[in-house]
Amino acid sequence: MVVSKTASIQSINPANREVIGEVPIMGATEVKDAVDRAWKTYETWQLVPYHKRIKKVMELRRLIEASADEIAQLVSTEVGKPIVESYLAEMTGPLDSCVWLAENIETLLKDQVVQMSNPLLATKQSVITFEPLGVIGVIAPWNYPFSIPVMTILMAVACGNTVILKPSEKSPMVGIKIGELFEKAGFPGGVLQVVTGDRSTGEQLTKCDLSRIIFTGSVAAGSKIMAQAAPNITPVSLELGGKDAAIVLPDAPVDWTARGLVWGAFTNAGQACASIERVYIIKGKNTQKLIDKIVHYASTLKVGSPLEPTTDVGPVIDEGQLEIIEAHVNQAKEMGAEILTGGKRNDELGGFFYPPTVLTNVNHTMDIMTKESFGPVMPIMVVDTEDEAVARANDCDYGLCASVWAGGLNRAEAVARDLQVGTVLINDCLVSHAMPQVPWGGLKKSGFGRSHSLFGLMDLVNIKHISIDSSGGSHRIWWYPYGPTRVKTARGGLKFLHGTFPLGKIKGLFIFIFNLFRKAK
Ligand code: NAD
């Protein structure tokens, strides 16, 4: 990302450092105008019935599928993702979300009728309704520039909200493309608006009149956004970084596990919030074989142009990211880590390339085991027991995802239950972000709130309770006037309803009824 004098940003292809586009950095006035327009559109959009909103969602699905080649090329060019991943990791989640919303949203957000169990409240019936909130601000990262914002926007607009998207300054062209697709799908103009710019644009957005901010990005920015949103008491959902652990049990099949771990650490050049960033192998007879296989698969991955179908690993996003990776690897090396493959940036390819790197002899005093590297590095620690693996995995500021690799699934599930994270995948990793049916989100510094599924929908609606009393004018014991008789009624009522001895309950009922019909004193 380069900021020019005319308050615009250039989007750079990380594979060859060429400029692929330029967009304006929108300021306070433009952002506020967009938010005002979103509120205006909300007045009518919230009234559109579900089946009509879903029709547009399904039209968007048709358009994404029909434009899949164009979208994939753009994503791979702008953020350096291998083209296979631009199809699979960027488009399956949004497409499946369209179908899931079409099939479920109306049922999931149907009014719920609730009866009271307390006899004093027997004349009341409660209805819980799920109404749209208003205008949602979506602030997005560059690493999944299409799937992350599109899945969130789809859920928000299907509920009846309108949305302002602030795409990352490193992937603005994909952000603009998202806006075009929603427009082409027939969503009214103000339902989704895209405001381009850097963090200053994002900051302006967080200070506007929004019903919720859904932020996905770094811990540092998430913490600032909470503070920026605080004066207006704007709720925030934070999907932040990760340092995901993979735990390998001794009975894990060697070749297959090695291939899974290598994919989990190096897909998207390790730039996924849920990348495998640490591996704990529980010592067993296959430990060395597994490490050898990991090194074999990692060192034979093809690093190169993201548009080349045979490329496995593309560039990282920019020089800043390369420097973080180098700092982590070099520090680990100085502190005694052994590099089994990779370990040095590759300048010959012309972009920001770093080869898949596997390290052993690492420990938790090294940044590579505790801080988010966000690059193609896999540090491996061999541990003695399952308890040690779990303790090490939980010894972390983050709590996004984890994976457990095993032959026996019962043992793997027991380990999964001990891990302090939002998601555990057994014998796979990462892929659950593409599942709209299940929640996504983390603990600790990985953030709070959930996206996807019913739980994600609950962050996008006002859960309203309407209590209806049908007793038609009868007196309530909790209304005035108060006095000693009312105290006796109340005490008797409590004894009857919640006393533990049968005789006491009967006595309570008697006191309650006797005082209920006496004149208040
Ligand atoms: P980032 O925090 O630098 O930027 C994310 C977005 O926030 C950008 O659009 C940026 O312009 C905006 N922004 C930054 N500061 C802001 C501020 N003060 N006010 C308003 N907006 C602001 O993150 P990034 O480099 O784009 O993304 C990488 C990070 O995102 C990694 O830490 C990764 O783990 C995390 N991530 C998390 C998830 C998840 O689901 N938990 C998913 C993807 C990425």
Q: What report would you give on this structure?
A:
By secondary structure, the chain is α/β, with parallel strands linked by helices. It folds into 3 domains: 27-240 and 454-464, Aldehyde Dehydrogenase, Chain A, domain 1, CATH 3.40.605; 244-436, Aldehyde Dehydrogenase, Chain A, domain 2; 475-516. Helix content is 42%, strand content 19%. The chain is built from 17 helices and 21 strands. It has helices spanning 28-45, 50-66, 68-79, 83-108, 147-159, 172-184, 199-206, 219-229, 254-266, 287-299, 319-334, 367-370, 386-394, 409-417, 453-458, 484-498, 502-516; strands at 2-3, 8-12, 19-24, 112-115, 124-132, 135-139, 162-166, 192-194, 212-216, 236-239, 244-248, 276-282, 338-341, 357-360, 377-383, 398-399, 401-405, 423-426, 443-444, 447-448, 461-469. It has a 7-stranded mixed β-sheet with strand order 13-14-15-12-11-17-18, with helices on both faces. The protein has a 6-stranded mixed β-sheet with strand order 8-7-6-9-10-20, with helices on both faces. Helix 9 (254-266) crosses helix 10 (287-299). The longest helix has 26 residues, at 83-108. The mean pLDDT is 96. Bound molecules: nicotinamide-adenine-dinucleotide. Nicotinamide-adenine-dinucleotide (NAD) binds next to helix 7 and helix 8.
